[in-house]
């Protein structure tokens, strides 16, 4: 299986550059799409790394689509998608490809997407996307963006792309639900570990329990809320159980914002804006004064 990767960056630091170099040691080609406005494009000495200046922040979906088109044009079978908050572990690429091929051999059909198991690099906390825990792999409904292995010929043959009007949040879930709507298979590998950071995670004690907050900024809160609403409307019939659970989780997140997070008034204002714009299909980049 011939595979490459696309990495989306925004104001990357030295750690991000180091992660990209580590990734390039496991792949023949890495496409880096930099969303940083007004910044000189960084060059790498590694020949297998190509950097594209995206001319400003165009969100996560548009760079991922650039990666899909590049993979298709160059004849790659698989595309790994990464954001800059991730670091691959040893033999990560090899293990993900092995999971893909093992599923195809056993089930007689190739998956559209293989997702890793995620772990916070500092907290050691694992984000489980599946309903059961086991070795090997299991079927899932959706996955986060970073670290996934996409079946390029299968996905592009269906005309499926990442929704650029979502801009950033929920792009991953909407993409996965679109795949599921086409009766394609998504699996999670328990043997592939990706170190990944979700926001700026902090822990808080409340009524004798530990509560974790992601501390996303106010603009991200707008996108999270707006795109959730848009996604609920689009996929309610096929994803009722997941959407009910996510709706409950959204209110838990809101309570955590009120109780623990900084800049809560601005975040609450943007949650309300997101609800309104999601209901009235006002999509695209952030439309309010920053």
UniProtKB/TrEMBL annotation:
Residues 6-107 form the Glycosyltransferase 2-like domain. Pfam families: Glycos_transf_2. The keyword Transferase applies. The keyword Disulfide bond does not apply. One of its GO terms (molecular function) is transferase activity. This is Rhamnosyltransferase. Keywords: Transferase. It comes from the Bacteria. Coiled coil: none annotated. Gene3D superfamilies: Spore Coat Polysaccharide Biosynthesis Protein SpsA, Chain A.
């Amino acid at each position: 299986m011939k595979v490459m990767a696309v990495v989306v960056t925004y104001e990357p630091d030295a750690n991000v550059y180091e992660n990209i170099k580590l990734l390039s040691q496991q792949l023949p080609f890495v496409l880096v799409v930099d969303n940083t406005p007004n910044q000189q494009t960084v060059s790498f000495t590694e020949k297998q790394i190509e950097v594209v200046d995206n001319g400003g922040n165009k969100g996560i979906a548009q760079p991922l689509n650039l990666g899909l088109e590049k993979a298709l044009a160059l004849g790659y079978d698989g595309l790994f998608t990464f954001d800059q908050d991730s670091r691959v572990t040893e033999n990560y690429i090899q293990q993900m490809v092995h999971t893909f091929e093992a599923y195809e051999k056993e089930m007689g059909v190739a998956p559209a997407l293989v997702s890793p198991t995620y772990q916070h690099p500092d907290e050691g906390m694992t984000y489980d996307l599946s309903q059961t825990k086991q070795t090997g792999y299991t079927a899932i409904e959706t996955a986060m963006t970073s670290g996934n292995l996409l079946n390029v010929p299968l996905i592009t043959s269906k005309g499926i792309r990442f929704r650029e009007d979502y801009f950033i949040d929920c792009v991953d879930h909407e993409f996965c639900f679109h795949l599921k709507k086409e009766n394609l298979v998504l699996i999670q590998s328990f043997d592939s570990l990706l170190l990944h950071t979700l926001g700026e995670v902090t822990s808080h004690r409340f009524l004798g329990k530990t509560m974790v907050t992601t501390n996303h900024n106010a603009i991200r809160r707008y996108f999270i809320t707006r795109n959730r609403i848009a996604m609920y409307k689009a996929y309610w019939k096929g994803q009722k159980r997941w959407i009910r659970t996510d709706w409950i989780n959204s209110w838990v997140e809101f309570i955590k914002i009120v109780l623990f997070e900084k800049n809560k008034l601005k975040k609450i204002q943007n949650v309300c804006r997101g609800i309104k714009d999601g209901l009235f299909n006002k999509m695209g980049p952030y439309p309010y004064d920053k």
